[in-house]
Design brief:
Oligomer: single chain
Helix content: 40-55%
Number of helices: 5
Distance between the termini: 37 Å
Number of domains: 2
Largest sheet: 3 strands, antiparallel
Strand order of the largest sheet: 1-2-3
Length: 158
């Protein structure tokens, strides 16, 4: 591993630790040339499926984009960052388990809606109104009735 300060290839691992889940290894390193220390993280590089848009375009899966769209729906809602991170992780896990090289964007949208419904009913309706492209109030009313039937569940816990 090259030193990020002096670009010397002569570095040494001085400490190694796994995170609680055991899926990331943190390594403290020291450069033998400049004596500076830095941290590296090691994780499995699993290939996520490409997302196929309605018009046929293919985009790489982007965790940050997924999280940002969920955060937008959850704006000013009482849902913790940890709960959102957990939902994004569950979506990623489901995509990996599918084992597909490509998935249609509507399948990803359905996974997002399922997670938002668990987290916060208002965010679910917000996302659904854009995702399903509601054209009149009756479609909006149907979405509200759908979450009303499900009963009260809060996304604060997760």
């Amino acid at each position: 591993m090259k030193c990020p300060f002096c670009a010397s290839p002569d570095t040494q691992v001085v400490d190694t630790r796994e995170n609680e889940e055991g899926d990331i290894v943190r390594r403290r390193r020291r450069c033998n040339a400049c004596d500076k220390r830095f941290t590296t993280y090691e994780r499995a590089d699993l290939k996520m499926p490409a997302i196929v848009k309605k018009d046929g375009r293919r985009n790489d899966f982007d965790r940050a984009k997924l999280a940002a769209s969920m955060q937008l729906a959850l704006r000013k809602r009482p849902v913790t960052t940890e709960a959102v991170d957990g939902a994004v992780q569950r979506i990623e896990d489901k995509l990996r388990v599918l084992g597909e090289r490509e998935i249609p964007s509507h399948a990803l949208g359905e996974l997002v809606m399922r997670e938002l419904k668990r987290l916060d009913k208002i965010a679910y309706v917000r996302f659904a109104s854009v995702y399903r492209n509601f054209e009149d109030v009756s479609e909006f009313r149907e979405a509200v009735q759908e979450v009303s039937k499900a009963g009260p569940r809060r996304g604060k816990r997760d």
